Amino acid sequence: MIEILVIEDEGDIRESILDILEAEKFEAIAAPNGKIGVELARKHTPNLIICDVNMPELDGFNVISTLRQDPSFALTSFIFLTAMADRDSLRHAMNLGADDYLSKPVTRKALLEAVNARLNKQAAINRQARAKLDALRSSISLSLPHELITPLSGILGLAEILIDEHATITPAEVLEIAQDISASGQRLNRLIQNFITYARLETAGTDKYNFGQTDRPTQIADVITRIATNKAKSVNREADLLLDLEDAIVAIPEIKLEKILEEAIDNAFKYSNAGTPINISSRKAASFLTINVCDRGRGMTAEQIADLGGYMQFERKLYEQQGAGLGLAIAKRMTELYGGKFEIDSEMNTQTTVRITLAIL
C-alpha cells in the first residue's frame, strides 16, 4: 500500500488531509511538527511527504534539507503546504528539492491531483529504472560468461600444465607459465572491476555523490604521463608514445581521472599496430582543459561511435579482444558524471581521436 506522511502543526488541517487520503485508500501517517516528521520519515520511508512550511522547532525547509541528505530520500516525492505565495519562498522550496506546493486552505480536488501526479511520476521513474536494470541484467547474462571464460581458460590450462609436467619443466619454463597465469588473472580482474564500475555508474545516474565523489581536484600532467608511460611499457611500444602536455588542475578526483585515461589510452594501443604513433596532448582554453588521445589504428564508423555503450565491442567478429567493450563506455559515463565531455572523432583505417574536456579550477 502507498504510504504518505503528513507533517502539519495545525491539528484541524492535519486531520482533514488524513481523512481525504484515507478515504482514497492511502496509508496515511501524521506528525505535529518537523522534528517528529523527520523521525517518522526515517522510520517508515513513505512514498510521498506532504509538509507545512511554517512550523515550530523545525520548519518545512529544514525538514526537506535534512531528509535530502539521506540517499534513502533522494527520490521521495515532496509536496509543500504553504500560506506564503511570494515567489522567493516558492523558488527556495523548489531549489531544496520540493516537487510541488499547495496553497492553504487546500481543497480535496487540488490535494488529490497533486498527490496522484507525484505518485504517477514516481511510478514512471520506477518503471524506467526497472527496465534499465532488466536490460543491464540481460546484457550481463549474455556477455559475462564468454568474457570470463576466455582468461579463465588460460589460467586453468596453464595450471594444468604445471600439475601434469611439474617433474620435467625447467625453472625458466615455470617462470614463463607463471607470468602468463598472472597476465590472464590481471585481465580477468580488470574485466570484473569494469563490470562492477559500470553497474555503479548505472546506479549513480547523474549524481556523482552516489559514485563516491570527493572534492579533491587533480594536477593533470603527471597523471597522464604516468598512465601513458606505464601502458606503453606494458606493450613494448615506448617509442610510439608522443606526449605534448599543458598542465592544469581539473575538477575531478584523481582516481576517477586515472580510470578515464586508462580506458582511453588502452583503447588507443589495443586497436593500433606497433610502430604507429600514439599522440597524447592537453591544451587549456578559457576555463577548460582538453585532452586528446590519438592513434593511427583501424578507426570506428559513425554508427559505432553513436552506439557507444556497455557490453558492445566494435567489430568483435573481426577483432577478438577481451573486455566486453566496457572501457570507452565507462570513460564516457564517468567524464560526463563530473561535468565533462567525452567525444570521439574517427576515420576508418586512418585514425581515431578521443577528446576529453574537463573544467579547470
Description:
The protein has 361 residues and is α/β, with parallel strands linked by helices. It has three domains: 3-106, 3-Layer(aba) Sandwich (Rossmann fold); 131-204, Helix Hairpins (Orthogonal Bundle); 214-359, Heat Shock Protein 90 (2-Layer Sandwich). The chain has ten helices and twelve strands. Residues 310-324 have low confidence and may be disordered.
What is the percent of helical residues?
40-55%
Question: In whole angstroms, how far apart are the ends?
Answer: 48 Å
Total helices: the number is 10
Mean pLDDT across all amino acids: 83
Strand order of the largest sheet: 2-1-3-4-5
Biggest sheet layout:
5 strands, parallel
Q: What is the number of strand segments?
A: 12
Q: Structural class from helices and strands?
A: alpha/beta
Note the overall shape.
elongated
Which stretches are low in confidence, meaning pLDDT under 50 for 5 or more residues running?
310-324
Any idea of the CATH class of the largest domain? Alpha Beta
**CATH topology name of the largest domain:** Heat Shock Protein 90
Q: How many domains?
A: 3
